[in-house]
Amino acid sequence: MNFLKFTVRRLAEMAATLLGASFLIFGAMYLAPGSPASFLLSGRSASPDALRAVNEQYHLDDPFAVRYFRWLGQLLHGDFGRSITYRTDVSRLLADRLPSTLLLVTMALVLVVVIGLALGRIGAVRGGATDATILVTTTLAVGTPSFVAAVVLQGVFAVRLHWFPAGGTGEGFGQLLWHLTLPAVALSLYLIGMLARVTRSAMLDVLGQEHVTVALSRGVPKRHVISRHVFRNALGTVLTTGGLIVSTLLVCTVLVESAFGVGGIGQLLELSITTKDFPTVQAISLTMVGLFMAVNLVVDLVHPLVDPRISLGPGRSAA
Question: Residue 9 domain-assigned?
Fold first, then answer.
């Protein structure tokens, strides 16, 4: 029952947050300089009648509140509007480009979780020169922005060594995976370093606790203690970074997709901002907010399964 109540409460909070985010996203675009009408006219000087016709067609002269509630009503019916730049439904643009972005983010997330947890665990358990090497490596990873990693990886492994394609998405699922390998590595590098350091720190804290010392002194195999007690207890701390990891992946995918020419929603967002394509920018931004909130909800629900000390009872959350 507590689980159900918590889920319902979190879903209600998500709905309220999405409503607030929709208002901020919609309003922020209209605070930016310039007008979509100037792009529609391709920068040409236009007569007042032509400009009025464009504004009427796209409802650009309507009051802000009217435009917002019209847009919100369309969203509730699954209609994201029509792209000003591409002259097609925004939902169709998202359907065409979202799979590539989701696959890229998923590949990067797998690399972050597998390599980050492994490096953090090895550094905490082995210590010594191994730990020092991992610390230096992860420090370099954390200090390397995604766009810098993209340029370096592209120059070395695509241009010089010809091991991977320099950009694009190829044809078919197999080619898509191959083309997204370098972008996924560039996108995950910073977060691998961050997660490794968080995991190492959390495990070292648990290793110093009394129950671990007692278990080791009683002859319990160290491997068993590390797996069943230290690593599992440390995962509670690691899980709290889940939202940060996903939000970073979603933000940085804009830069990485542009660098590698991946036709995902990140690249679409950059182009849409440049051309003042309001409906597309608003739809992509709201989609990213929704994905981020969904991941946070999953983390909150999984947290008690990893750490039984976390309660979903009244007045408490799994965060």
Answer: no
- Go through the chain and tell me how many residues it has: 319
Does 178 map to a domain? yes
Separation of CA 235 from chain center: 20
Structural domain contains residue 225 = yes
Say how many domains are in the chain.
1
> Is 0.85 topped by the overall pTM?
no
Are 319 and 240 in contact by the 8 Å Cβ rule? The answer is: yes
Give the integer Cα–Cα distance in Å for 33 and 60. Answer: 14
Place of tokens 């967002």: 269
CATH number of the domain bearing residue 198? 1.10.3720.10
Full residue range of the structural domain in which residue 129 is found:
98-274
Residues in CB range of 34: below 8 A, 6 or more apart = 276
- Give the C-alpha distances (Å, rounded to integers) separating 77 from 12, 21, 80, 160, 263: 19, 18, 9, 50, 27
Buried b (16+ CB within 10 A) or exposed e, 284-305: bbbbbbebbbebbbebbeebbe
In a domain, 18, yes or no: no
pLDDT tens string, the chain, 319 residues long: the values are 576 787 888 888 888 988 898 888 888 766 766 566 665 555 556 566 666 766 676 666 777 788 888 888 888 888 888 887 788 888 888 888 888 888 999 999 999 999 999 998 898 888 889 989 999 999 998 888 888 888 888 888 888 888 888 877 777 788 888 888 899 999 999 999 999 999 888 888 887 777 777 777 777 777 777 877 777 777 777 877 877 888 888 888 888 888 888 878 888 888 888 777 888 888 888 888 888 888 888 877 777 776 666 655 544 444 3
